[in-house]
Write a structure and sequence with these properties.
Helices cover about 40% and strands about 20% of the residues. The chain is built from 11 helices and 10 strands. The strands form 2 sheets. The chain has a 6-stranded mixed sheet with strand order 6-7-8-3-9-10, sandwiched between helices. A hairpin with a 5-residue loop joins strand 1 and strand 2. It is globular. The structure holds adenosine-5'-diphosphate (ADP) and magnesium ion (MG). Magnesium ion binds next to helix 1.
Length: about 280
């Protein structure tokens, strides 16, 4: 049994119009991890995700879920989609029912569960995303951030092992981005493997256990957030930016203002602690 919950082997994908979107992608995702796919528009993030849960079928290569190669028949696709849920970038493309409750119950009803179990799952999913009190409200009248959370509940109700979020914080303000990231962390605490794509280097750096950088449909590099964002050549070639926290840290370190042995900070709090532990920094 593989220690990886999800893998791709030599995955290539060509769209019908001839666009070669992915070329030989080999990824191995560990169970229970927080993984980010980073790369500019058009680098292939969404196409990888659509291959993950069988919405697209690889032109070449394969997708492996829990050690088994995905088969593209109805039975295995249903099983796959129950276990790997995708939350699309735009909730408008995902939501279609009248009320929040109807929307979220739809997926669970398709699983042929009892009415009591459907209700239990819908209530739990809505509570997990902080939308329980809106359950009788019309989806149509919700704000963008609320729709996004309902779209997440849509997936949670299936009890997936992996949730894939395509650009989850794009178009959200900082407050609602934080709210969504908190939901990811809560889900991850429950053992769900969380995979996301993002342009937001600050989020990828602070949040991820592991990062995969895509460029022109290929993997440019993968590694820990520190490995990825300390690689200036990679950042330049993949049109990324260095996360602000890391940039400040590297500047302070290279000018000798902090100990060269300080652990690399992942968030503001950790950076402030390093700065505060060094009295003379206050003079700079
Ligand atoms: N439905 C489609 N038909 C043809 N080409 C597409 C389609 N969707 C995406 N592409 C192309 O595939 C490549 C990868 O796109 P995509 O996976 O959407 O990248 P990302 O999510 O990183 O922005 C791009 O060149 C894009 O133009
Ligand atoms: Mg995309």
């Amino acid at each position: 049994m593989s220690e990886y919950i999800l893998e791709t082997r030599n995955l290539s994908y060509k769209y019908q119009d001839g666009t070669k979107a992915l070329n030989n992608i080999n990824v191995k995702i560990e169970k229970g991890k927080k993984v980010s796919f980073v790369g500019v528009n058009g680098s292939g993030k969404s196409t990888v995700f659509l291959n993950f849960n069988g919405i697209l079928k690889p032109t070449k290569g394969s997708v492996i879920y829990k050690g088994n190669e995905v088969k593209y028949n109805q039975k295995s696709l249903l099983e796959l989609r129950k276990n790997i849920g995708i939350v699309f970038q735009d909730p408008e493309n995902q939501l279609f029912s009248a009320s929040v409750y109807q929307e979220v119950s739809f997926g669970a009803m398709n699983l042929k569960l009892s009415e009591t179990e459907v209700r239990r799952r819908v209530d739990a999913a809505l509570m997990d995303v902080g939308m329980y009190e809106y359950k009788d409200k019309a989806v149509h009248f919700l704000s963008y951030g609320q729709k996004k959370r309902v779209a997440i509940a849509d997936i949670l109700v299936m009890n997936p092992e992996i949730i894939v979020f395509d650009e989850p914080t794009s178009s959200l303000d900082p407050k609602h981005s934080k709210q969504i990231v908190k939901i990811f962390d809560d889900l991850n605490q429950k053992g769900i493997t969380v995979i996301l794509s993002t342009h937001d280097v600050e989020l990828a750096y602070a949040w991820s256990d592991y990062i995969i950088v895509l460029k022109d449909g290929e993997i440019a590099r993968e590694g820990t957030p520190q490995e990825i964002f300390s690689d200036d050549k990679l950042i330049h070639e993949c049109y990324l930016e260095k996360p602000f926290i890391l940039e400040v840290f590297e500047k302070l370190r290279s000018s000798g203002k902090i100990d060269s042995s300080s652990a690399v900070p992942r968030n503001k709090q950790e950076l402030f602690e390093i700065i505060n532990s060094k009295g003379e920094i206050n003079n700079c």
